[in-house]
Design goal:
Blueprint: E1 8-10, H1 19-28, H2 36-40, E2 45-50, H3 56-71, E3 74-79, H4 82-98, E4 108-109, E5 118-122, E6 125-128, E7 131-138, H5 142-145, E8 153-159, H6 173-185, E9 191-197, H7 204-208, E10 218-221, E11 233-237, H8 242-250, H9 252-259, H10 263-266, E12 288-295, E13 300-306, E14 312-317, H11 345-356, E15 360-362, H12 365-374
Parallel strand pairs: 2-9, 2-11, 3-7, 3-8, 4-5, 8-9, 14-15
Antiparallel strand pairs: 1-10, 5-6, 6-7, 10-11, 12-13, 13-14
Length: 375
């Protein structure tokens, strides 16, 4: 996987909120996420990272279903794994349709799905009034459906594109998404919206799209040397509204989050780098064996394996007292005393899988940034 240049921040446009969302927010006391600003940039790929409970998933449903009711255009709803698809399709779609009334869309989840404006999900097909409005697809299944025709699809949505910390993803997510989009979109100008809670920046998909280096709230666009790909994607790292944050912090759930030390992720919408992501400062390093040295465009890192179970991967700074500023740069390779192994794609994929499995520990943020630059 080629590394993409880091995204850069842009000033947001002012765009009034959808009138139906404003009305729904007043009636329910909620603070729904406003997609209008993001979509006004007219990018093919649109990402949102936000706090839970702000209606990002609900907003995507609204965009897809309103498109279908207005033009007949269908949508696809991507989830990563089977268990995620089961969550969407459970009780024949009752959960999927249940909250649409909050944004002014009245669709009743029924067993028949035939009377009036009724809806159900059966065999992965989202039906409204007995007709197919969309499809729920697990991302890994691109190989099994690549011959299927999705000519009516106008929108593609990927919910929870950053997997939960406990999940073990056994496939290449960027590869699966690229192939799934090829199957669903073909040569049509279908737009993609992806929503996630801010869990971890170690998402290979986030890195592959060029958004791995973000840290502050705001709007970002990707940079790419290919002019056709440059600024093709936009990401909004969303700061929660003050009123919502205060209400959330005062709630029982908010108090539990604070009590358990999770207020940063749950209440402040901050990235969680995960437990044991970095080596504890000042402590003796665990036993480890040098695997290889990886060279990026400018800097290098060393990859070790070891630890208590022998399966942990350690990404360490490549330092040498003879190297320039003690950090070995690419032009200092002649100073390397060990045999230098240049990582091929298979090895980089191994590192990505290890990151997803929470089996990687970094010596520092510097070592982390160098690694992500090259994978």
């Amino acid at each position: 996987m080629q590394s993409a240049p880091l995204a850069y921040r842009i000033s947001p446009k002012h765009k009034t909120m959808d009138a139906k969302l404003v009305k729904a927010a007043k009636e329910t006391g909620a603070s729904w996420y406003n997609f209008n600003v993001l979509l006004s940039y007219n990018k093919a790929v649109n990402l949102v990272i936000k706090e839970r409970g702000l209606g990002g998933t609900l907003g995507m449903k609204g965009i897809g279903i309103r498109e279908y009711l207005k033009t007949g255009g269908q949508f696809v709803w991507f989830r990563t794994c089977d268990v995620d698809v089961d969550e969407v399709c459970g009780h024949r779609g009752a959960t999927f349709f249940s909250d649409l009334k909050d944004i002014g869309i009245n669709i009743n989840a029924t067993i028949d799905g035939e009377k009036g404006r009724d809806g159900l999900i059966i065999d992965g097909a989202i039906k409204i009034d007995g007709k197919i409005a969309g499809y729920v697809l697990p991302l890994y299944a691109w190989e099994t459906i690549k011959g299927t025709d999705y000519a009516g699809v106008k929108w593609a949505f990927y919910d929870e594109f950053i997997p939960a910390e406990h999940k073990r993803i056994g496939f290449d997510v960027p590869k699966a998404l690229a192939n799934m989009c090829e199957t669903v979109m073909r040569t049509r100008d279908t737009r993609l919206i992806m929503v996630a809670n801010s869990l971890t920046k170690s998402s290979p998909l986030l890195r592959a799209l060029g958004f791995g280096g973000i840290s502050d709230f705001g709007y970002y666009v990707n940079k790419n040397p290919d002019k056709e790909l440059d600024e093709m994607a936009i990401l909004h790292y969303c700061q929660s509204p003050k009123t919502y944050k205060e209400k959330h912090a005062a709630s029982t759930a908010g108090k539990i989050a604070r009590l358990l030390g999770q207020e940063g992720v749950i209440l402040e919408n901050k990235f969680d780098t995960g437990a044991n992501t970095y080596l504890p400062a000042g402590k003796k390093k665990p036993p480890m064996i040098l695997d290889c040295i990886l060279h990026g465009k400018t800097d290098s890192v060393r990859v070790y394996t070891g630890g208590i179970n022998g399966h942990t991967v350690y990404i360490m700074e490549d330092r040498d007292k003879l190297a320039y500023m003690r950090y070995r740069r690419t032009f200092d390779r002649k100073l390397v005393s060990q045999y230098v192994t240049l990582a091929d794609k298979a090895y980089k994929d191994y590192i990505l899988y290890a990151i997803q499995a929470k089996q990687v520990i970094f010596e520092s943020e510097y070592a982390e940034s160098v690694l992500y630059e090259m994978i």
